[in-house]
Specification:
Blueprint (H helix, E strand, L loop, with lengths): L8 H8 L7 E4 L2 E4 L8 H11 L3 H10 L9 E3 L5 E7 L5 E7 H5 L10 E2 H17 L1 H14 L5 H14 L5 H11 E7 L2 E6 L3 H9 L5 H8 L1
Parallel strand pairs: 3-7
Antiparallel strand pairs: 1-2, 4-5, 5-6, 7-8
Helix pairs in contact: 6-7, 6-9, 7-9
Length: about 230
């Protein structure tokens, strides 16, 4: 048996350059038409190769240029006024991210009563609250009951696995997917000088549980139909 290992960048590049998917087979250093059917169209292959042919640093610039803010559009002060994302990059390349009260810019310094909030610390505090909710047995039981109403094929084990799975894989998700999930679960984050309140969306966790629970196997579907 050959044990598996985590997929890394080199493995991805190997897949993207494997012409076996084009219906070809390699002999020594040459590729020839094989007897198996291709599973990737030539046009798609050529488009991928054109991207891979670019300078890696240039190709990565648009991705690096985007600065992720997990709570963008969700954070506000206790007065209902929004906090807006802001960042600065020092000469050494180090990035500093913050959430700034809008009132500070529109009125005067200190108008909101809030400091400039480091984005990393605020996001970590919100995620910790979110994770506590996902782990709570009482929450799992309540979500299970409501989720089963939406999908009678679910059971408590499936919902529990779905909720704990999100906690386990969170760090491996792309920033865009993390932000999508946060917006699905959280309605707003209210910050005051001495408190942090996370308000969750009604039914948000149930909807996410339905997204995350494993699809039934084909044989299970056939048995259900039979």
């Amino acid at each position: 048996m050959r044990e598996g290992k985590p997929i890394d960048k080199s493995h991805i590049y190997k897949i993207l350059n494997n012409q076996v998917y084009l219906g070809e087979i390699r002999h020594r250093d040459q590729w020839y038409s094989g007897e198996h059917a291709p599973i990737v169209e030539r046009s798609l292959w050529d488009a991928a190769q054109a991207i891979l042919g670019q300078n890696p640093r240039v190709r990565g610039n648009p991705t690096r240029a985007r600065v992720p803010f997990l709570l963008k559009g969700l954070v506000q002060g206790s007065d209902g006024r929004a906090l807006t994302p802001w960042f600065t990059r020092k000469k050494n390349g180090r990035l500093y991210r913050y959430y700034l009260p809008v009132r500070e810019n529109k009125e005067h310094a200190g108008a909101s009563g809030l400091p400039r909030l480091p984005a990393g610390e605020l996001e970590a505090a919100v995620l910790e609250q979110l994770r506590r909710v996902l782990r709570a047995p009482a929450m799992i039981a309540g979500v299970t009951e409501r989720a089963i109403r939406l999908d009678p094929s679910l059971d408590e084990a499936q919902v529990a696995v779905a909720m704990t799975r999100l906690d386990a894989i969170w760090e491996q998700l792309f920033p865009a997917e993390q932000q999508r999930i946060v917006r699905l679960l959280i309605e707003k984050v209210v910050v005051s000088p001495d408190a942090l309140e996370v308000r969750f969306r009604p039914n948000g966790i149930e909807v996410l549980a339905l997204e995350l629970h494993p699809e039934p196997a084909a044989e299970d579907v056939e048995e259900a139909v039979a």
